[in-house]
Design brief:
12 strands, alpha+beta, about 270 residues, about 25% strand, Jelly Rolls
C-alpha cells in the first residue's frame, strides 16, 4: 500500500488534547476506499472465518476481522492512520487494540452516550479510536457526536444507568459531575466516505438513529499506547488469552502499528 505522510499538524494535536476528538478529511484515496470495501464484503461473506459477530438494535458489529482476512488486515495496518493515532496520543508507539465493522441499518436505534474506556479491560487511560466512514455519513444516517473536553472528566459510571436514559443529554446530566452539566454541548460531525474522526477513549460520544433507507457503514480501528495493562475485566478480545491482572496487553493479537522506531512496526 502506498503511504503518504500522516496529515497531522501541531494545531490538530493540540485540538485533540483539548477537545478529545479530531476530524481528518480524505485520509483514504478513492482506490484505497474501494479496495477496503471489497475486502470487507469478502470477509463478511465468509461465515467460516469465525470472527466475533453481534446484531443489535443500535447496530451490527463484526470484531477483529483483521485476524482472519488478509485484505482487511492490510487496511487495518494502514500506517497513515496508525501514525495519526500515535501523534494524537503523543506516544512513542501504538498497538492495535481491536477493529470493528459497524453497520447501522435503516431504522436502527440511537447509540447511547458513552465512553469507551470503562467498557474495556484496561488499567491505564490513553487508548483512542479511529472512526472511518465507508460511505458518506450524514446526521440523518446517525453520524457521530462528541462532547468537547469530556475526556478530562475521568471514567464515568455509564453502566449504572439504563441505556435508554443515556440516549438523551438529559440522561447524561445524571452521569457527569455536577459542575460539568452546563458543558453538555455536543459537536456533530458528518463525514464523507474515506474521511475519519479520532476520539479519546474517555470522550463522551453518541450516534443518532439511522433515519434513511441506506445502511450506515463505518469501520473502527482502536489503538492503544504500548504500556496499557490488563485490568481483569471481561472482553471478547482478551477473554481467550488468559491474561493476568496487571499484565501488559501485548503480543501477536496487539501488534505495533506505529512507532518512532520504524523497525518495530508490524507489517501486513
Amino acid at each position: 500500500m502506498a503511504v503518504s505522510p500522516a496529515p497531522v499538524t501541531e494545531e490538530q494535536v493540540l485540538s485533540f488534547q483539548e477537545n478529545g476528538y479530531a476530524q481528518f478529511d480524505d485520509v483514504l484515496t478513492p482506490e484505497e476506499l474501494s479496495d477496503f470495501r471489497s475486502a470487507l464484503a469478502d470477509a463478511t461473506g465468509q461465515a467460516e472465518l469465525g470472527y466475533f459477530y453481534r446484531e443489535g438494535q443500535e447496530y451490527t458489529q463484526h470484531v477483529n476481522l483483521w485476524a482472519s482476512h488478509a485484505g482487511v488486515r492490510r487496511h487495518v495496518f494502514n500506517p497513515k492512520l496508525a501514525e495519526i493515532a500515535r501523534q494524537l496520543s503523543q506516544s512513542e508507539r501504538v498497538r492495535l487494540w481491536h477493529d470493528q465493522l459497524i453497520v447501522k441499518m435503516p431504522g436502527n436505534d440511537p447509540s447511547r452516550w458513552h465512553q469507551d474506556l470503562p467498557l474495556w479491560p484496561m488499567i491505564e487511560a490513553g487508548p483512542l479510536t479511529c472512526w472511518l466512514a465507508l460511505v458518506d455519513v450524514t446526521v440523518e444516517m446517525g453520524c457521530m457526536s462528541y462532547i468537547p473536553g469530556s475526556h478530562r472528566w475521568g471514567r464515568l459510571a455509564c453502566g449504572t444507568l439504563p441505556s435508554g436514559i443515556l440516549a438523551t443529554l438529559e440522561g447524561v446530566r445524571l452521569l457527569v459531575p455536577e459542575d460539568k452539566r452546563d458543558r453538555l454541548e455536543p459537536v456533530t460531525i458528518e463525514l464523507k466516505a474515506g474521511s475519519c474522526a479520532f476520539h479519546d477513549s474517555l470522550t463522551l460520544h453518541y450516534a443518532g438513529p439511522n433515519q434513511t433507507d441506506k445502511p450506515r457503514q463505518g469501520f473502527i480501528i482502536n489503538y492503544m499506547p504500548n504500556d496499557i495493562r490488563f485490568s481483569g475485566k471481561s472482553h471478547v478480545t482478551t477473554d481467550p488469552l488468559n491474561l493476568t491482572v496487571g499484565q501488559p496487553i501485548a503480543g501477536e493479537m496487539f501488534p505495533i502499528l506505529a512507532s518512532r522506531d520504524q523497525t518495530e512496526i508490524a507489517r501486513a
